[in-house]
Write the structure tokens for this entry.
Amino acid sequence: MPIFNPDIETMDQKELRELQIERLEIVINQAYSNVDFYRKRFDQAGVNPDEIKTFDDLKRIPFTTRKDLIDNYPYGMFAVPLRDVVRLQFPLGTYGNPIVIGYTREDLKIWQELVARIMVGVGITEHDILQVAFNYGLFMGAFRFNQSAELIGAAVVPTSIASAEVQIRILQDFRSTVLVSSPSFALHLIETMMRKGIDPKTLSLKIGLFGAEPWPEGVRKIIEKGLNIHAYDIYGVMELVEPGVAGECAVRSGLHIFEDHFLPEIIDPVTGEVLGAGQEGELVLTTLTTTAYPLLRYRTNDITSLTPEPCPCGRTMARMGRVLKRSDNMISVRGINVFPERVEEVLSRIEGVGPAYSLLATGKHGMNDQLKVRVEVSSDIIDGKEEKKGEIQEVVQQALHRALGLRVEVEFARKGSFT
Ligand SMILES: [Zn+2]
């Protein structure tokens, strides 16, 4: 399988480490000089940025968490003046203040290459037609597929949220060769095709790129058979770049992390202790080249492990295991991230509702496609008129839909029934 940037992707590991250290020193200095948050953090921890010279020294830098990004809303984490920022993005579904991420023109160029590396790595060429069925409104990373496909000369059909019927029609008529979507949507397509008696072998599809939610190996098998394709996992972090942090190669034995741009560590999510190769823990990433929004030791909350051994594909960059677990309580429903804190926040604004609630995510094949919110309500609501109860239920449902970008089922419970 061809490699997009062989000089970098197959570079000698010793040289790669040197490149990382060189870039690390630069990014630390930029963060310290230009971001108040980092200057204060370093000073409080008694760390002089000039003293960080080795990977071991890195351990002295405190972690950055999602809460830090929320607390520094809107522009507190930016390391460049706004005039240098060409794109602002906010991941939906976060709680508290939203998070705003900025990218310079240079950041976007790097990101464009990273996704192109993934595409080329799975065999996508200028002859391919990519059907991108991600929700462009909710998942802003979807645009990345357009820009990276342009870089390698492939054509893109951004079908976004078109219904399964329309998507199938486009797959047939346009002869799309690559499907890019959430794995949940691929399953939905397969079900629809089965119902309509469409044989996947009559389609031109060859490859699928799937991400934005955890999907077990069993689901990969169902998708590969149901669509008659090779299905690959891609990985990103919404607070950095998503997609574009890592992707599977044709060997499919872990996802290559683009270590020339991100420095990965695995930590014990409870103690914060750095773990060794092969050990499972939380992935922590330091951006090495990001200019607008540098993140030092960012806790992704994703649980995985790292394999530093070079891969049979020729790439020398470390591989991470597929992410199927989180260290926080975020749940993924149809590719949409739901933070319980966000649900709580929405419920707290509606009179007579809450505070106790529970979330129940359900679905097939170990993936969630439905979310039920059960919440306690005051006795005058639960014992009141059905009509009034229905109205309040509708208010809760709509408020959650707006906040999460996901339609949920709402059930009322009597106060005290959660204890
Ligand atoms: Zn490989």
Observations:
- The longest helix spans residues 13-34.
- DSSP finds 13 helices and 20 strands in the chain.
- Residues 249, 251, 256, 311, 313, 315 surround zinc ion (CB under 6 Å).
